[in-house]
Amino acid sequence: CEGLRQKEYLQFRPPLLCSNIEIGGRRRREEEMGKISYMKLKGSQNLRQRLLLSTLSSTPILIEDIRADATWPGLLPHEVSFLRLLETVSDDCHVEINETGTKLKYKPGIVMGGKHLEHDCGLSRSIGYFLEPLIVLGLFGKKSLSIRLKGITNDSKDPSVDTFRSTTLPLLKRFGVPSEGLELKIESRGVAPKGGGEVILSVPIVHNSLKAVTWTDEGMVKRIRGISFSTRVSVQFENTMIHAARGIFNRLLPDVHIFTDHKAGAQAGKYVFLKPISPGYGISLVAETTSGCFLSVDTTISYARGNDEMDIDEKKELMPPEDVGEQIASLLLGEIEQGGVVDSTHQGLLFILCALCPQDVSKVRVGKLVPYGIETLRNIRDFLGVKFVIKPEPATGTVELKCIGCGLKNLSRKLS
Question: Does the reported pTM lie above 0.85?
Answer without folding.
Answer: yes
